[in-house]
Design brief:
Blueprint: E1 3-7, E2 10-13, E3 18-25, E4 33-39, E5 46-52, E6 56-59, E7 67-72, E8 77-82, E9 91-99, E10 102-105, E11 109-114
Parallel strand pairs: 2-11
Antiparallel strand pairs: 1-3, 3-8, 4-5, 4-9, 5-6, 7-8, 9-10, 9-11
Length: 115
């Protein structure tokens, strides 16, 4: 059974940086797409960034220029480097992956940015 396990969340001051990691286990296939979403209190889950085969990336406008998504295909892992963090970035961050024809979600990791 495929599982996505995230790590790297925490508390940081505005202007600081964090790096999130997510590893997919339980599959011998590489993910077609790996992505990050986030959900702030009282808001719907929203797209943050994704990376497709061929290293094609896309970002939400709100994080463009501050966040960088990358992946390690050998480890079936995806990373999110978050710089210049703002209080508005406070949310639970979820890893998402599509492996073959099935999509999976991680359990989420809390990121809190203090002002």
């Amino acid at each position: 059974q495929v599982q996505l396990v995230e790590s790297g969340g925490g508390l940081v001051q505005a202007g600081g940086s964090l790096r999130l990691s997510c590893t997919a286990s339980g599959s011998d296939r590489s993910a077609n797409v790996m992505a990050w979403y986030r959900q702030a209190p009282g808001k719907e889950r929203e797209f943050v960034a994704h990376i497709r085969s061929g290293e094609i990336t896309r970002y939400a406008e709100s994080v463009l220029g501050r966040f960088t998504i990358s992946r390690d295909n050998a480890k079936n892992a995806v990373y999110l480097q978050m710089n210049s963090l703002k209080p508005d970035d406070t949310a639970v961050y979820y890893c998402y992956a599509v492996i073959w024809v099935t999509s999976y979600w991680g359990q989420g990791t809390q990121v809190t940015v203090s002002s």
